[in-house]
Design a protein that fits this description.
By secondary structure, the protein is an alpha/beta fold. It has helices at 8-13, 22-32, 39-55, 59-69, 89-97, 101-114, 127-144, 149-176, 251-255, 260-268, 275-282, 286-298, 317-332; strands at 2-5, 15-16, 183-186, 189-192, 198-201, 208-212, 230-234, 273-274, 302-307, 310-315. It has three domains: 2-18 and 150-234, no CATH class; 22-149, no CATH class; 251-332, Orthogonal Bundle (Arc Repressor Mutant, subunit A). It contains 13 helices and ten strands. The strands form three sheets. A four-stranded mixed beta sheet has the order 3-4-1-5, with no helix packed on it. A three-stranded parallel beta sheet has the order 2-6-7. Residues 240-256 and 328-333 have low confidence and may be disordered.
């Protein structure tokens, strides 16, 4: 069990990440190769990723370099997920490369004591060897994560939309109360399922909540309590959405969107809306709003997930682009 202790200052400084963190997603995706737990939620991605890695001749790199460094255990090196990663993949990898030698050695030693480290791991303190690691991370990310960037962005934006509603309803504690089944808020402590028993005292630093598509089951935080506190936690996965489609929407799917009511429903989703709110905004019944939302979701234009007792719908990048194009076309007439 992980217990995160908040003060009032910590609550005031707690925030939600602005988008997917590329290096956290990279590391969490490596965990998906190490367990069958939750495989239903990632089945399509897992199958496609294995094929892509084989085609790119990265399977050996995955097995001998990346997986041994990021075991699905109580610890993997913190320097692999630097705060700079929030600024993008390039910034994150540059920070990995710039990690001081002493820190690399300390964290590799922690890995060895926690769950075992490969014999070559201490050589990561050498800049040339770390360059090879960074190159492998970049190739892996470009092969199995970057192709799904828009879908990840849409899912994280949906999570942020739900968090914004939770803040309006109950302040930041409303967010902490709705982080998922593996986390429980009991003021002033956030309890989370965790591989080992641990207490984390924020001491006025606040907490950065990082929703992750590839995180599953238990949240993840830094092993080093002196680092700025981060909690990476899973987004919800609906059983009817079992993977990340490579392409959002087809000609046939988009053709099904023709019609005034469905277009109105899509516009009403712009700021995020529940099914009941869609019905009220468009003047149609709740059952009709639900049917239109299903068609829009199947076309890849919105994503839907459960938020407290309701289902919250938000736009995907494709849906937002369709609305922008429609607005431009209307303005040009």
């Amino acid at each position: 069990m992980l217990r995160i202790h908040f003060t009032d200052a910590d609550l005031a400084r707690t925030r939600v990440a602005s988008g997917p963190d590329p290096l956290w997603e990279l590391c969490m995706s490596l965990h998906r190769f190490q367990t069958r737990q939750g495989r239903w939620a990632f089945a399509d991605w897992h199958r496609t990723a294995r094929a892509r890695l084989h085609t790119a001749h990265l399977t050996h790199t995955l097995r001998t370099l990346l997986l041994p460094l990021v075991p699905r255990a109580s610890y993997f090196p913190d320097f692999l997920t630097p705060p700079e990663s929030a600024e993008g993949l390039d910034a994150g990898l540059a920070a990995v490369l710039a990690t001081p030698e002493h820190r690399v050695l300390e964290e590799v030693d922690l890995l060895a004591r926690a769950c075992g480290a490969p014999a070559w791991a201490p050589r990561l303190a050498e800049t040339d060897v770390r360059k090879e690691l960074v190159a492998a991370m970049r190739a892996y990310y470009g092969t199995v994560i970057a192709p799904y960037g828009e879908q990840l962005q849409a899912r994280i934006e949906a999570e942020r939309s739900a968090s914004a509603r939770a803040v309006l309803d109950g302040g930041i504690e409303g967010v902490l109360r709705n982080l998922g089944p593996g986390l429980r808020w009991q003021r002033p402590v956030l309890h989370a399922r965790y591989p080992k028993d641990r207490d984390l005292y924020l001491n006025g630093r606040g907490l950065l909540l990082v929703p992750s598509y590839f995180c599953w089951g238990t949240p993840v935080t830094f092993g080093d309590s002196s680092l700025d506190p981060v909690l990476v936690h899973p987004v919800s996965h609906e059983p009817h959405r079992t993977g990340l489609p490579e392409e959002s929407g087809s000609d046939a799917s988009l053709a099904a969107l023709l019609g005034r009511n469905r277009a109105a429903v899509l516009r009403a989703v712009t700021a995020g809306a529940t099914t009941g709110e869609l019905a009220r905004a468009t003047g149609i019944s709740a059952s009709s709003a639900s049917q239109h939302a299903t068609a829009l979701r199947d076309a890849g234009l919105i994503v839907s997930h459960r938020h407290t007792t309701s289902v919250l719908h938000t736009l995907t990048p494709l849906g937002a682009a369709l609305l922008r194009n429609g607005t431009r076309a209307a303005a040009a007439r």
